[in-house]
């Protein structure tokens, strides 16, 4: 499989968007709810290391998409502007330390501080302290963190414990660091961690060989936690979202890492890894799509229709898995057809509406509900006071949908009708030179002559 053919239209549309105004507008389309308010809450709600890391990723994809691994050419990593919102936020939240707490207080977790790793790498381009901290975090994960029998890095620092959540925190950082440092072996480790985790959480296996697609006892849905601490054998929707989006970020990195494209590096395993990751993500999405919904949302535990309270429809897992669907349609359109768009659109449209009691899923001040208790996944009472995860997943959903529109795969929606509904942020714009000539000016002139609408429809 090769990178999707839609990355060039996506890039050109981003360029056109950037040059048609003085600043890039991160929220050009109306999702049916106030995405600006949702994003502001997503930044203010977090209080734990993994929540900060998730917010950094969400803000990066929303406000500075050319720095995200979902951009067409995220590597080599450039020196980002000091005004990138996600990195301003990351610099405030990263606490330089050592060991498992190298980037933040992980409260006994190995993966949670690593969720800030991509931010540290980007900050490290202009501040050596963060570059050193990112390197130390990689060293801890690779050489000091506990491991499961098959080599999976533990989510907990004291004993081997495997959490689906880890998949969003550490493997994408490992892959990003590998791509930035041209380390093919480390890039392979990021892919292998995805496979090891799948063996444990999908097949209850300690194998280092990866089981065939479509042979799991849970229809592709991952268990939440395996190990001696806090075991949770349920198919938690948020856990499946963590795992699927983590693998999507690893896949995007693998597709675009210079070292994986270097013929001299001879990446003999890359093609198989791209196919594996795409298939593993599809397993989860297909399992989720086959699950019975509750008021249009995925259930907290995807297969729980017992009525015991654990299967209520909630927004966190729903938003994250819908975001994954949009990303995969762009990055692997040969495997993810328009039915995935329709499914993700359905969830997005539910978020824009009301629950059965007539309450909006997105409040006036940007709180997205109902969510699972962010610190208690077994809680049967829907969380309505604001979930850091849920709000950030809604931001990830919006960004993935917007980029799917820019790729001319998702239907172009209405633009916001009032300037107050969106906010502009300055983002670094890459330079595209051919024999010293910046092709953006040619594109700008062409589109001014033919009209921006013509360019949008053509590209």
UniProtKB/TrEMBL annotation:
> What biological-process terms (Gene Ontology) are attached?
carbohydrate metabolic process
User: Transmembrane residues, as ranges?
Assistant: none
The protein's name: Uncharacterized protein
* Keywords assigned by UniProt, alphabetized: Hydrolase, Signal
InterPro entries per record = 6-hairpin_glycosidase_sf, 6hp_glycosidase-like_sf, Glyco_hydro_88
Q: What range does the record give for the signal peptide? A: 1-23
Which Gene Ontology molecular function entries are recorded, alphabetically? hydrolase activity
PANTHER family hit by this protein = CELLULASE (PTHR41814:SF1), EXPRESSED PROTEIN (PTHR41814)
Q: Which organism is it from?
A: Favolaschia claudopus
């Amino acid at each position: 499989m090769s990178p999707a053919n839609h990355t060039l239209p996506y890039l050109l549309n981003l360029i056109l968007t950037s040059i048609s105004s003085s600043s890039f507008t991160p929220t050009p389309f109306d999702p049916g709810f106030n995405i600006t308010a949702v994003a502001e809450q997503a930044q203010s709600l977090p209080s734990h290391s993994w929540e900060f890391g998730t917010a950094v990723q969400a803000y990066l994809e929303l406000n500075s998409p050319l720095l995200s691994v979902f951009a067409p050419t995220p590597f080599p990593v450039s020196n980002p502007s000091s005004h990138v919102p996600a990195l301003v936020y990351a610099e405030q939240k990263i606490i330089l330390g050592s060991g498992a707490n190298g980037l933040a207080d992980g409260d006994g977790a190995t993966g949670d501080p690593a969720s800030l790793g991509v931010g540290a790498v980007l900050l490290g381009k202009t501040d050596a302290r963060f570059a050193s901290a990112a390197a130390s975090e990689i060293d801890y994960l690779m050489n000091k963190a506990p491991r499961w029998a098959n080599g999976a890095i533990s989510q907990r620092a004291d004993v081997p414990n495997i959490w689906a959540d880890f998949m969003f925190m550490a493997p994408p950082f490992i892959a990003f660091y590998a791509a930035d440092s041209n380390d093919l072996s480390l890039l392979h480790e990021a892919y292998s961690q995805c496979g090891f985790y799948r063996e444990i959480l999908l097949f209850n296996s300690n194998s280092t060989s990866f089981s065939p697609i479509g042979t799991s006892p849970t229809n592709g849905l991952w268990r939440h936690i395996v190990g001696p601490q806090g075991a949770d054998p349920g198919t938690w929707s948020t856990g499946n979202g963590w795992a699927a989006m983590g693998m999507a970020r690893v896949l995007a990195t693998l597709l675009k890492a210079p070292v994986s494209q270097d013929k001299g590096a001879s990446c003999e395993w890359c093609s198989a890894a791209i196919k594996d990751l795409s298939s593993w993500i599809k397993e989860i999405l297909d399992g989720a799509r086959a699950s019975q919904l509750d008021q249009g949302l995925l259930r907290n535990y995807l297969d729980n229709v017992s009525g015991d309270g654990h299967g209520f429809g909630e927004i966190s897992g729903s938003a994250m898995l819908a975001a994954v669907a949009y990303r995969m349609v762009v990055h692997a359109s040969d495997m993810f057809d328009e039915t995935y768009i329709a499914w993700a659109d359905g969830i997005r449209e539910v978020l824009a509406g009301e629950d059965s009691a007539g309450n909006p899923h997105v409040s006036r001040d940007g709180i997205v509900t109902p969510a699972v208790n962010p610190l208690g996944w077994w809680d049967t009472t829907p969380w309505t006071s604001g979930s850091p995860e849920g709000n950030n997943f809604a931001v990830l959903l919006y960004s993935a949908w917007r980029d799917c529109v820019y790729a001319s795969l998702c239907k172009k929606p209405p633009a916001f009708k009032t300037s107050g509904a969106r906010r502009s942020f300055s983002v670094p714009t890459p330079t595209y030179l051919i024999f010293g000539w910046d092709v953006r000016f040619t594109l700008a002139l062409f589109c001014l002559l033919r009209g921006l609408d013509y360019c949008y429809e053509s590209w």
